[in-house]
Amino acid sequence: MSEPTAAASGASFEKPPLDDVMLAMDVVDTLRRRERLVARELDEAGREADLKQRLKGIYAQQGIDVPDHVIEQGVAALKEDRFTYQPAPSGFARRLAMIYASRRRWGKWVGGGLVAALLAWAANYFVFVAPDKTLPEDLNGHYEEVVAIAASDKPRSRAQQLLNAGNAALRDEDTQAAREALAQLERLRAVLQQEYSIQIVNRPDARSGVWRIPDVNEAAKNYYIIVEAVSASGERLQVPIRNEETGEVEQVSRWGLRVERPTFEAVARDKQDDGIIQNDRFGLKRAGYLDPEYALPTSGGAITQW
């Protein structure tokens, strides 16, 4: 329901005064809202005075007293397109302003992209760039650690070869090859640090020996004693063993050591006697050495699967 006018209600009230400019702008706005009225009145000669009178009536109904000169200013302003927004001409400055005004729409996507790019850069730096910068120092440090642990010339010679290979790769800017040399130095150090006894697997539920027929000579047999690495505290260890059938080095807790048939049969008789191998010690791997010392004759060849 609309509010009653002052004349209808009989009440008298005062509106806050508006300056002439604000009133003229309001007149223009009123005229624009009544486009049909304006088009009809302004297009007919001699009807402008009537239009001004009708405008005064519109404001009177709202309790606003608009002077005649303000009505005239409003009508004239409408004719001259005053108080009308004119868009800025196209150009570089306008495009910048439009981009800035729409920043809430595209800002989150740009911000997300910048964050993703920053994370990718950080990951690349800390995973690849930063470690690569320390490669020369790391190579020398690992080499010195290996030499300090080594108890024979064989691991020292191997460490020197790896150091030379790593430095040569750095000179050629081949960081991948340098990292591989560093990884091999780390593995060499780990092997030298290990100390364990090599024992024949001596459990009723596990095999203590196997034999294989080689592909190159089906008339022959290769014999293997199954052994495991046991620390001084009785813990079974994982050790690197090269499988002579595949050429691959694998981390295993049990492997087969190749022996001659008499050794194989002697171990078999020992186990068949009472189900227990009395002499189950096959060898010893001491810290500082690469190769174990064997108590039983073996070629050192090994398999990791049977």
What is the gist of this entry?
This protein is of the alpha+beta class and 306 residues long. 53% of the residues lie in helices and 14% in strands.
Describe the fold and architecture.
- The protein has 306 residues and is α+β, with helices and mostly antiparallel strands.
- Helix 8 packs antiparallel against helix 9 (153-171) and helix 9 packs antiparallel against helix 10 (175-193).
- It has three domains: 18-80; 131-193; 196-303, no CATH class.
- The radius of gyration is 48 Å and the shape is rod-shaped.
- It has helices spanning 6-9, 20-33, 35-43, 48-61, 68-80, 92-101, 103-133, 135-149, 153-171, 175-193, 261-274; strands at residues 196-200, 209-212, 222-230, 236-237, 239-242, 249-252, 254-259, 281-285, 293-294, 302-303.
- Strand 8 (281-285) and strand 9 (293-294) form a beta hairpin.
- The chain contains eleven helices and ten strands.
- Strands 1, 2, 3, 4, 7, 8, 9 and 10 form an eight-stranded antiparallel beta sheet that branches. Strands 5-6 form a two-stranded antiparallel sheet.
- 53% of the residues lie in helices and 14% in strands.
Descriptive terms for the model:
two-stranded antiparallel sheet; rod-shaped; alpha+beta; 306 residues; eight-stranded antiparallel β-sheet
The percent range for helix content is: 40-55%
Ends apart, CA distance between termini = 96 Å
How many distinct folded domains? 3
Strand content: 5-15%
Count of alpha/pi helices: 11
In total, how many beta strands? 10
The string of secondary-structure elements, in order, is: HHHHHHHHHHEEEEEEEHEEE
Average predicted local confidence, pLDDT = 80
Task: Please tell me what the overall shape is.
Answer: rod-shaped
Rg, Å, rounded: 48 Å
Uncertain runs are 1-13
Structural class: alpha+beta
What does the largest sheet look like? 8 strands, antiparallel
